[in-house]
Design a protein that fits this description.
Structural class: mainly alpha
Number of helices: 3
Number of strands: 2
CATH class of the largest domain: Mainly Alpha
Strand order of the largest sheet: 1-2
Shape: rod-shaped
Largest sheet: 2 strands, antiparallel
Radius of gyration: 32 Å
Low-confidence stretches: 128-145
């Protein structure tokens, strides 16, 4: 049960990391596209001939594009920091799952109330492995071995 919960968390983390990677790629593409657009506008400024009104419009467009670039870069920065934390959490969860699986595979039950002297018939079932890996009920309590 515990490993199923942890495996669900693991799957969720992997999904979030994949989605974050896609968003990182999208934001990098946005920044790259904006950089190309800014380069085009710089060439218009360098090579073009325009009046004050046209110069203002080019300047306003560069400002708007730079604001969009800042937003994309801020998003990229946040995503990069978060993906690092998520990858660390993924490794930790994978390690925890392995530890739980090892614990469960080596888990043994030690009787608390039953003794061979008083409960030979029940104890013999364990020794012959007729009820191996099954729940035992003793005094109306669930017991595991």
């Amino acid at each position: 049960m515990q490993t199923q919960i942890m495996e669900g968390q693991l799957k969720g983390l992997k999904t979030i990391i994949e989605e974050s990677s896609v968003k990182i790629k999208e934001n990098k593409e946005i920044v790259s596209k904006i950089d190309r657009r800014i380069n085009d506008l710089h060439h218009i400024l360098e090579l073009g001939s325009f009046n004050a009104c046209q110069g203002y419009l080019i300047s306003a467009e560069i400002r708007d594009i730079l604001i969009a670039k800042r937003e994309a870069k801020n998003n990229l920065s946040i995503l990069m920091r978060n993906i690092g934390s998520l990858e660390k959490a993924l490794k930790t969860t994978e390690k925890q799952i392995k530890n739980v699986e090892v614990e469960l595979s080596t888990q043994k039950y030690h009787f608390r109330e039953m003794t061979e002297e008083n409960d030979k018939s029940l104890m013999s079932l364990i020794k012959t492995e007729k009820i191996s890996n099954k729940k035992l009920r003793v005094n109306n309590k669930k017991r595991y071995h």
